[in-house]
Amino acid sequence: MERSSRKIAITAMMFLILLVSVTGNIVNAETIPEWVKNNALWFGQGLISETEFLNAIKFLIENEVLVIEDSERKFFRDTDATVIIPNGNSDIANVGFYLPLNLEIPVGVTVTWVNDDSVQHNIQSQDDSGKVTDIFNSPPLNTGDRFEYTFDKEGVYKYHCSWHPWRVGLITVN
Ligand SMILES: [Cu+2]
């Protein structure tokens, strides 16, 4: 009897894990409280309802015993990146490098350049010799203007501003 109820409990726990893996990936599974284990056991024995069993799972998620990766949120977090054109960027004597100077991103990320400088700039993709290429080319960007480009291929992309060509930045797409 003891052995068969344990077998049922294992089945219930496997169901729990399956349920979670359908919803998302388990990133972190910490100690499961005794009462939740009991709930799984009782559910397997038909002593508690499905609702009570699901409430136990809900408890694990709400208290971050089971951490589910929110693929939706991950999507938003990983698909945006920003490069700031800082104030003073136009002056060759200044430190005003792009922030960050080398942005590393995974494939599929949309990069937004933001002009925080008091003067106009643009963003032009360039080849290794500094010649403008047609991969991404922004119009003139006034203070506060933004320019977006989505990187769909791996590689190291260099860019500069055609009015201040000594300002070269890098986007590394892995
Ligand atoms: Cu410029």
Description of the structure:
The structure is a single chain. The protein is an alpha+beta fold and 174 residues long. It has two domains: 2-69, no CATH class; 74-173, Immunoglobulin-like (Sandwich), CATH 2.60.40.420. Helix content is 31%, strand content 31%. The protein is built from four helices and ten strands; from the N terminus they run αβααβαββββββββ. It has helices at residues 2-23, 34-44, 50-62, 71-78; strands at 26-29, 66-68, 80-85, 102-105, 110-115, 124-126, 132-137, 146-150, 155-161, 164-173. Strands 4-10-9-6-7 form a five-stranded mixed sheet, with no helix packed on it. Strands 3-5-8 form a three-stranded mixed sheet. Strand 6 and strand 7 (132-137) form a beta hairpin. Helix 1 (2-23) packs across helix 2. The mean pLDDT is 84. It binds copper (II) ion. The site of copper (II) ion has 6 residues, from strand 10.
Offer a quick outline of the entry.
By secondary structure, this protein is an alpha+beta fold. The chain has four helices and ten strands; from the N terminus they run H-E-H-H-E-H-E-E-E-E-E-E-E-E. Bound molecules: copper (II) ion (CU).
Features:
174 residues; alpha+beta; Immunoglobulin-like; five-stranded mixed β-sheet; three-stranded mixed β-sheet; rod-shaped; binds copper (II) ion
Give the topology, please.
Layout: H1 2-23, E1 26-29, H2 34-44, H3 50-62, E2 66-68, H4 71-78, E3 80-85, E4 102-105, E5 110-115, E6 124-126, E7 132-137, E8 146-150, E9 155-161, E10 164-173
Parallel strand pairs: 3-5, 4-10
Antiparallel strand pairs: 1-2, 5-8, 6-7, 6-9, 9-10
Copper (II) ion binds next to strand 10.
